[in-house]
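Field reference: sequence -> structure
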Amino acid sequence: MPDIRYVILSDLHFGAENSVLTSLKPGGIEADPHKPSAVMESLVECLAELVTKNEGPDQPQLILCGDILELALATDNIAAMVFDRFLEKAFPPNGPLFDKTVYFVPGNHDHHLWETARERQYAKYVSKQAPGPEEELSIPWHTTRMVPPKEEAVEAELLTTLMRRYQHLREATVVAVYPNLRLTAGERSVVVHHGHFVEGMYRLMTTLKDMVFPGRPPADKIWEWEAENFAWIDFFWSTLGRSGEVGADVGLVYASLQSEPAMKQLAHNLATGIAGKLTWPSPMRWLGGKVLDFGLGRLVRLASRLERSDPSKPLSAKADQGLHLYLQGPLRSQLLEEIGDKWYELPDVPKDLTFVFGHTHKPFEVELAPKGYRGPVSVYNTGGWVVDSERSAPLQGGAAILLDEDLNVASLRVYNQEDYRVRLAQVHADAPNPLLDRLSGLIDADAGPWAALAAATHAVVDERHIDLGELIKRGPAPVPPPPADPRRSSRP
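Structure field:
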C-alpha cells in the first residue's frame, strides 16, 4: 500500500486577518492569535485521518511552500503565535503527524525569513575561510541547491526556534531551500517552488534592467533573477508591512486592491499629498497634481492586476507565459546544473517531472509541454487559504498536495469558493495512481471530519468576504487639498 511520504502546504498566511487559518476576535477583524481557527482545527484533523493510516513506520515530511508567516500584513509576533497554534495541532506531544525535519520554501510574503537564512548561510561559509590580506571571499549567493547536501543545509531560524520551544520538539529543524526544492524517486522528480517568479511583478528589477541596458544578455539563471529582485521582493512583501503605522496602512492597500474605487481614492490621496509638498508656483503645483493623479492611477490599476485577482481562469495568459518562461529558463538551467554527479556535466532533465507551486490562490492541475524537457510536465497548484475578494470567487480555494514514496501525486482539493466539498484530483483523471486510489477509500466527503471541514470553511470564507468589505469601507478617506501658501497668495 502506498503511504503518504510528503505533504505540501502553501499560502497559509498565518497572522493575516483574511486567512481562514487565523482566528479573529468577536465583533471585529482583529486577529486572535491565542486560539486556532475552526478551519485550522478541521484541516489538521482531516490530514490526521490520512496520515495515521500509513502502514510504514516513517512519518511524512511536511513541506511549507511559502507565504506561511504573513510578514506583509501582520506583525511578526501575531504571525508567530498563529504558527504556534498550528504546531500544537499538527505536532502534539502524544504523536506528531509529521517528521521533525520540515522543509521550508520561502515565498514573497515571508521572503524576509529567507534573507535571514541566507545571511546565516554566508556567515557559515565565511567562518571556514582563513583571514588575511591575500584571502578573497566569494560574493554572497542568493539561492540554495535544489537538494542541499547536509553540510550546506541552512535553517529557517525563526521557524526552527518556534518549534524547539516545545519540549517534545527540541530536535526539530526547519530547513530553508530556496527557491526550488527537488524530490526524487527513480526517474521521477518533483520540484516545489512558491510561484512568485511566475508573475512579472516579482521580476520587476530584471525587466527594468533589460529596458535600461538592452545590449546586455538577459538573465536566465535562477540566482540571477533572485540577485536582481531580492531587495524589491523583500522590501514590499516582507518588510514594508512591518513598518509600524505605515505597515498597518499597507494592509489597507492590499485590501483595496479588490476595489477599483478604493484604489482610485488611494492613488488620489497619494497624488494630493505629494503635490502639497511641492514648492512650485500654484498653477504648476495644480498641474503637477493632475499629472501625478493620472500616473498613479495607471500604476495602481496595474498593481491590482495581480494573478490572484483574476477571477476568470485558473491561470491568466500572462501568468501562463510566465510559468513557461520559468520552466524553460531558470528551472531548466538549475536542473541541468545540479542533476549530474559533477557540476559541469549537462545531462538531460528528468524524464518524469512534476512542478508544484502556489502563490496564485487558485488551485488547479494541468499538463504542459515546455521546451527543453524530455516529456510533458505535470503542474499542480496548491491554491491558498485567504479570502481576497468581497464576493465569492469560485476558482479561489485551497489544496494540500500529497506524495507517496514513488512520487505519485494527489491533490487534496479542500475547497473552492462556492464548492466546499472535499475531493481528490490529479492531472489526468483516468491515469493509474495507487496513491489516489488508496486515498479515495479513506475519504467520505459527506461525513465525519470531512463534512465538518467543509462546513467550517464555508462559514469562515463567508465571514471573511464581509470583513474585507468592512475594511475597505474604513478607508481611505479623501484627503482635502492643502491650504494655499500665504507667502504665495500675497505675491502679485
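Note: The chain is about 40% helix and 15% strand.
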